[in-house]
Amino acid sequence: MSTLSGADARDAELAAQYEAYPYPARDPRDEAKRLLIGSPSHLREIDYWVFGARRPQAVPLRALVAGCGTGDGAIMLATHMARAGRAGEVVCVDRSARALGIARARAEARGLANIRFVEGSLTALDALGLGVFDYVDCCGVLHHLPDPPAALRGLVGVLAPGGGMGLMVYAPYGRTGVYMVQEALETLAPLGEAPAERLGVARRVMAALPATAWLRQNGNFGDHLTGGDAGLYDLLLNPRDRAYTVTDFLDLLDAAGLEASCLMEPARYDPALFLPNPKLRARVGELSRRERARVAEALTGNMATHVAYVVRKGARAVPPDCCDPEAVPVMREMPGAELARQIRPDGVLPFAFGTLTVPVPVPPRMRAILPLVDGVRSVGALMAESGMDEARFLAVWRVGFAVLESLNRLLLRAVG
């Protein structure tokens, strides 16, 4: 993703990087084969985690992708909106002409008419005259900026009342080894050399990297290490790369007048999930949400990023009760029947949080309910078709929904 412009030398290096090696490397011809899915900016996630499943689908959604790079998040959101017949537009701003060209070609390959591209700096959004937005995506951008707090405040300034954001920043523990190699390469391939020359040095270093290097032990970087020149450059040669612990990230949000409505996935920030000892769980139960997140990050060690949906302080939308008979559940992406097959007969769902797989307990009877979830049937309809009496269904559903919601797999559909 591209970043804000600035006057310092590192920022000039960053601009040169993304013109030489737009990130991530994408071929518009691949749009005929697949749609890349991720977080943030999945439409169903926005509906639920930002708007609490209370914003009518008929209301147009105006979204800004701030630093769109080659367009992964923007293409996903615009495609979701087009497929769902949702009115609105996705406005993509980036200062890299080459990255914007790739993103534009991807949109053209999909025939998307609800997306447009603006070359410009995020520090001058007012001058671009884009107006305000219901949703702002800033993914993989803030950690490269000269002044992340100021940049985030600027994005808050174009956020419409009741709107929200999807953010992603790098995290330190899951990037163990990266900053050691970056430090070495700042000496071996100093800033100021041509990007192609720096990349050549990095490739030679990686070919000879000692077996003891921490980066060799870290399995979190398949996308960068197999992502061609752009992936390797972004990982090891980026001239400005700051990582945030989860508490640093929450402090950044707080200073901008924001709060997280969801850290993604919520369950991975609860250490009780992977600390089965009852005494430890009792201690975890006494912790605040912030403290639980800090402990989870420190113990798992594999969080390479933090993804969050955020809203203005005090403006978090509370979704309807999951047991409301009129509520309509929807699978985030994986069909209910497929998820049901992954739940073992004993009610254990092996769930991967990156490189960590955790056994997650789910009520076994959810295996019979999930195939019925189609985004059309209401909770009341699911109960009628489940073959369970009301008390049994609601007991299973409330627990099962809470678990799968915390894994970002089962949500509620936006109204209307």
Write a concise keyword list for the protein shown above:
416 residues, alpha/beta, 2 domains, 7-stranded mixed sheet
Percent of residues in beta strands: 15-25%
Task: Provide the domain count.
Answer: 2
Q: N-to-C SSE series?
A: HHEHEHEHEHEHHHHHHEHHEEHEEHHHE
Number of strands: 11
Report Rg.
22 Å
Q: What's the CATH architecture name of the largest domain?
A: 3-Layer(aba) Sandwich
CATH fold type of the largest domain: Rossmann fold
Overall geometry comes to: globular
Helical amount:
40-55%
| Through-space gap between termini | 34 Å
Note the total helix count: 18
The computed structural class is alpha/beta
- Mean pLDDT over the residues: 95
Which residues sit in consecutive blocks of at least 5 with pLDDT less than 50? Answer: 1-6
CATH superfamily of the largest domain: Vaccinia Virus protein VP39
Strand order of the largest sheet: 3-2-1-4-5-7-6
Determine the oligomeric state from the structure.
single chain
CATH class of the largest domain: Alpha Beta
**Major sheet size, sense and barrel closure:** 7 strands, mixed
Task: Write a compact overview of the structure shown.
Helices cover 40% and strands 17% of the residues. The protein has 416 residues and is an alpha/beta fold. The protein folds into 2 domains: 9-173 and 242-312, Rossmann fold, CATH 3.40.50; 329-412, no CATH class.
SSE blueprint:
Layout: H1 9-20, H2 43-50, E1 61-66, H3 72-84, E2 88-94, H4 97-110, E3 115-119, H5 125-128, E4 133-139, H6 148-156, E5 159-170, H7 178-188, H8 195-207, H9 214-217, H10 222-225, H11 228-236, H12 246-255, E6 258-264, H13 278-285, H14 289-300, E7 305-312, E8 329-331, H15 336-342, E9 348-353, E10 356-361, H16 366-369, H17 379-386, H18 390-406, E11 410-412
Parallel strand pairs: 1-2, 1-4, 2-3, 4-5
Antiparallel strand pairs: 5-7, 6-7, 8-11, 9-10
Helix pairs in contact: 3-4, 8-11
Protein name: Methyltransferase
InterPro entries: Methyltransf_25, SAM-dependent_MTases_sf
GO molecular function, one term: methyltransferase activity
